């Protein structure tokens, strides 16, 4: 059972989620600047990654084929390091942590995309962070067709980005399912809107976070 309080610390933990190319990175920069103008100390990080070991695991995860359960276990292994070394120390100090992806991505990609049972992922979630959840999760929701058109020519695709639209439709559906399970935490952003419209929405939502 996951605790109803997100965590006991004075800082804030905000996560950005969505299918590849949904626009997370574009808006992380904007939200960081917004928070810094309010004199918040902001730590921007990402998953998989965020630590020395996590970045090594990211290389394997994004480029090597492996069994879906191996993929899930390595995602959570990287997450444990990330929590211990970066996320928890920062929010204990009172800083604001913005992470480009967290556990919802494992439910969406390894669960929805690869077909792993939710129950197995819940067990890993409970093992790795039983008493910590993000304060707020922005889900950038957009069709795989729009996202893939945006990513086209941006960079050479990794293992996930080479997946077909049918995979990303399953990932998107699982993200929306997760948002339905945790409506207090999730804010769903229509990522087909213009960058300017999304910024206006984010400004209002961040303002409400205190
Ligand atoms: N609302 C938007 N309208 C039009 N283009 C956008 C919008 N948001 C982002 N883009 C463009 O789409 C591309 C992908 O955006 P971005 O890198 O932010 O996505 P991402 O979700 O972080 O992707 P990934 O998960 O693969 O890292 C970029 O070229 C960005 O400028
Ligand atoms: C945390 C996490 C990530 N993934 C996937 C999702 C993306 O395709 C890549 C990360 O690339 P990005 O450009 O930094 O978004 O990893 C995953 O499958 N499961 C996870 O738990």
From TrEMBL:
Alphabetized CDD domains for the sequence: TMPK
Binding site for ATP: 18-25
Keywords linked to the UniProt accession: ATP-binding, Kinase, Nucleotide biosynthesis, Nucleotide-binding, Transferase
GO molecular-function terms, A-Z: dTMP kinase activity
Catalytic activity entry: dTMP + ATP = dTDP + ADP
PANTHER family hit by this protein: THYMIDYLATE KINASE, UMP-CMP KINASE 2, MITOCHONDRIAL
Function as written in the Swiss-Prot or TrEMBL entry: Phosphorylation of dTMP to form dTDP in both de novo and salvage pathways of dTTP synthesis.
Protein name, per record: Thymidylate kinase
The species this protein was found in: Oxalobacter aliiformigenes
């Amino acid at each position: 059972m996951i605790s109803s309080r997100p965590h006991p610390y004075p800082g804030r933990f905000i996560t950005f989620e969505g299918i590849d190319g949904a626009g997370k990175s574009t808006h992380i920069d904007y939200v960081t600047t917004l928070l810094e103008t309010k004199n918040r100390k902001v730590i921007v990080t990402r998953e998989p990654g965020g630590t020395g070991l996590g970045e090594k695991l990211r290389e394997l995860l994004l480029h090597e084929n492996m069994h879906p359960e191996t993929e899930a276990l390595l995602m959570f292994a990287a997450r444990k390091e990330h929590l211990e070394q970066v996320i928890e120390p920062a929010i204990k100090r009172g800083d604001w942590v913005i992470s480009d992806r967290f556990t919802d991505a494992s439910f969406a990609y390894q669960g929805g995309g690869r077909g792993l049972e939710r129950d197995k992922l819940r067990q890993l979630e409970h093992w790795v962070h039983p008493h910590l959840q993000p304060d707020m999760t922005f889900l950038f929701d957009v069709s795989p067709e729009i996202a893939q058109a945006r990513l086209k020519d941006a960079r050479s695709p990794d293992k996930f980005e080479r997946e077909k639209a049918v995979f990303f439709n399953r990932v998107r559906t699982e993200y929306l399912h997760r948002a339905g399970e945790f409506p207090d935490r999730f804010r769903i952003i229509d990522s087909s809107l213009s960058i300017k419209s999304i910024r206006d929405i984010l400004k209002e939502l961040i303002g409400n976070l205190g």
